[in-house]
Design a protein that fits this description.
The protein has 394 residues and is α/β, with parallel strands linked by helices. Helix content is 41%, strand content 15%. The chain is built from 16 helices and 13 strands. The strands form three sheets. The chain has a seven-stranded mixed sheet with strand order 2-8-7-6-5-3-4, with helices on both faces. A four-stranded antiparallel sheet has the order 9-10-13-12. Strands 1-11 form a two-stranded parallel sheet. Helix 2 crosses helix 10, helix 3 packs parallel to helix 10 and helix 12 packs parallel to helix 15. The N and C termini lie far apart (49 Å). The structure holds pyridoxal-5'-phosphate. The site of pyridoxal-5'-phosphate has 14 residues, from helix 4.
């Protein structure tokens, strides 16, 4: 081990990024996987918008110049969208900080609150893994509490965790609304608990899936100066490749986040892309009802399989194998899910094995049909060999 590296990082398991859809080289093309592991919108931007973006790059962006470090035009457009999304009017650019993905904002929040041994983070597992991962890379301790069988936070356990005296106090609570990987939106009881948290704790409410769930706590932000709302352009808005997320918070929080961010964190092309999708938002978001219908159809179809499927208000489903399957396979639940994950991947469907189950993104109708087909073949006692033979013919 190189002596200048932090020992806690050397053995640390980081986030495994999304593998490329087409692995292999031009000489050795490998089968295309259905990428249903990172909850993106299955559709690329329409051709006409891509052309507009190319035009912006060719005509309006000077590649030798730094991007607009104030991000003023984009912030104004996001403020208008944020107000519209919750039927409010208080969001102005002073309430916004933009990040290179909301992942950057999560890190900025951690730097602004906890770094230097002054704060601990609380999360309820299973949840989005980046909170814990980013905290650990910054040397910030993470306290985890469990969820109930329906994936609501175990609020009694959370209260106990908060009340416990600790050397480094809890400074941030991260909640996803609706949660990933489990798909459940915050309940009235959970929201009441967030309202009850003292002002000494920052409450980060991650609404990455807002456009699917249409559930938001933005309208309550003026009453709770310790709350922040995180959103992203990576999911419904189809801009995962461009990396842009935003944080809505009280101007005092924003001032600090703005000090923490890198001056030119959003490339000019990214700012142009985000402005473009916002100005075409009704067209782009008109696909959402179709994806929600697909989610319901996927849900119904999977009910016929030996799976427990959890209700979701987002663009993904969380499924767990019934215990009879693991028993029949002679495997622990963990290994049974790993086997199902591997068999799905081998048949062409990439999902995410996390939180004690599989998280499956709702894809295009064709992708969802293949997901159902592959799961049937694996779970209804057909051998993988027949599955692979069938694969080559479709
Ligand atoms: C996808 C996702 C994000 C990350 O979004 P980026 O803007 O792409 O960094 C943040 N939070 C949750 C819960 C997500 O699912």
């Amino acid at each position: 081990m190189l002596p200048f590296l932090r020992p806690d990082l050397v053995n640390f398991a980081a986030y495994t990024p999304h593998p490329s859809g087409t692995e292999g080289s031009l000489d050795h093309p490998v089968q295309q996987l259905d990428r249903l592991d990172t909850n993106e919108n299955p559709y690329d931007l329409p051709e006409a918008l891509k052309q507009k973006l190319s035009w912006a790059y060719q005509q309006a962006i000077e590649s030798n110049r730094y991007p607009d470090g104030s991000q003023a035009a984009l912030k104004t457009a996001i403020a208008a969208y944020a107000n519209e999304s919750a039927a409010v009017d208080f969001v102005t650019p002073t309430y916004l900080s933009l990040g290179n993905g909301s992942d950057e904002l999560i890190r900025s929040l951690l730097i602004a609150t906890c770094v230097g041994g002054v704060g601990t983070v609380l999360v309820a597992q299973p949840t989005f893994s980046m909170y814990g991962i980013l905290a650990e890379t910054l040397g910030i301790p993470v306290v985890t509490v469990a969820r109930l069988p329906n994936f609501e936070v175990d609020l009694a356990a959370a209260q106990v965790a908060l009340a416990q005296p600790r050397a480094i106090p809890i400074r941030v609570v991260f909640m996803v609304h609706p949660n990933s990987p489990t798909g459940n939106a915050l309940t009235a009881a959970e929201i009441d608990w967030l309202r009850s948290l003292p002002e000494s704790i920052l409450v980060a409410i991650d609404e990455a899936y807002f456009e699917f769930s249409q559930t938001t706590l933005l309208q309550e932000l003026p009453q709770y100066p310790n709350w922040v709302i995180l959103r992203t352009f990576s999911k419904a808005f189809r801009l995962a490749a461009h990396r842009v997320g935003y944080c809505i918070a009280h101007p005092e929080v924003i001032t600090t986040l703005e000090k923490v961010r890198l001056p030119y964190n959003l490339p000019s092309t990214t700012q142009a892309a985000a402005q473009l999708v916002l100005s075409h938002r009704s067209e782009l978001l008109s696909i959402v009802p179709m994806l929600l219908k697909e989610r319901e159809q996927l849900f119904q179809a999977l009910m016929a399989l030996p799976l427990q499927i959890h209700p979701s208000t987002a663009n993904f489903l969380f499924v767990q194998l019934q215990s009879t399957v693991a028993t029949a396979w002679g495997l622990s639940p963990q290994l049974a899910h790993e086997r199902l994950f591997e068999q799905l991947k081998a048949t062409g469907t990439l999902v995410r094995h996390t939180g004690g189950g599989l998280r499956i993104t709702v894809g295009s109708p064709e992708e969802n049909q293949r997901t159902i087909h592959h799961l049937r073949r694996i779970l209804l006692n057909e051998t993988v060999e027949t599955a692979e033979t069938a694969e080559t013919t479709h």
